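fold-stage: in
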Amino acid sequence: FGDWRPTNFVIKNYINIETGSMNLNENNPNGEYIFYTRNEGTFKANKYTHNQTGVIVAGEGNFTPKYATGKFGLHQRAYLLSSNSDLLSNEILLQIVSSNVDYLNSVAVGSTVKSLRKNSFENMHFYIDGKFYKSLSLMAGETINNLEMYRAEKYGYEFIGWYSGGEFLSSELE
């Protein structure tokens, strides 16, 4: 990764931010859909408001993000963050928000119950350096190797691995 220069990004340029429309009284323990609320715990509802992938953060209390995909309901005091850029996946967005929980706690407002506002997310920064890309490279390499091992097993050929530690290896068998 050589002389690559670290970069600081403002997240609002890469994501959509919205709140839900459901109320807590729409909770139904026998409901069909996951219902993300401002409270801790698992809730269900009879309806869904979203059918997508993104990161959920409660607007009050515990700001630990959750990864959501598929059909789900979203409480009016919970935030859905989703990527609007090919440069940022929702999986990486989850990692960024997870690494910024201390920041979210520091910008939360209120004296009794701390709560977040939309600009709490808009002003969040994330920092990308060579180590970040190296870790992405390693994850991609592991995924490539797993896929190739699956193909080798399925089609009956020997696979010795061709990606390791961020470097491509020779694919030729010795």
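fold-stage: in (second)
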Amino acid sequence: DDETCPVCYEYIVDGMVPACGHHFCRGCMVGWLDGTLSGTCPMCRQHVVAGGGMRRSTKQVAPAAAPPPPRIIAAKLGALRDVVARGNKTIVFVAFAETMGTIRDMLDGSIRCYEITGSMSHAQRRASVTGFRDCPTPAVFLMTPRTGATGLNLQCASTVVIFEPALNPEVEKQ
């Protein structure tokens, strides 16, 4: 998808384009180049010159929508609290990263909370999935539809909550 960074699977933020023409978030590209000795594009492995060999991306497509007003979030948090109180393992999809922090604060450490974000390494993601799978109920797993849509198989969860609608309705249908 042209709107997402192939490194973090999130909307492109402060995009950069190396000479090969692939689009990435600036943070992802810098992190990739710092973490590899090869200095290559994450997609095609063509040599990338840090700094001078890149241009700004015209695909600045981070969603412009704002998170819902606080009264709507408060009502949804109350409903989520009720679902979690039943003792279920629950997967919660959110559209905005800020909402993950709000939900974590609402759980107040009383219920285990795991998450997947676009900035996590594969090892960190694996650790979150394993922790959620192996922990006693109840537990909550927070993620965005984009970061949780790739190769994730969580059959141990009994409830899925779409806390905020995805910006792309087709993602929700999956």
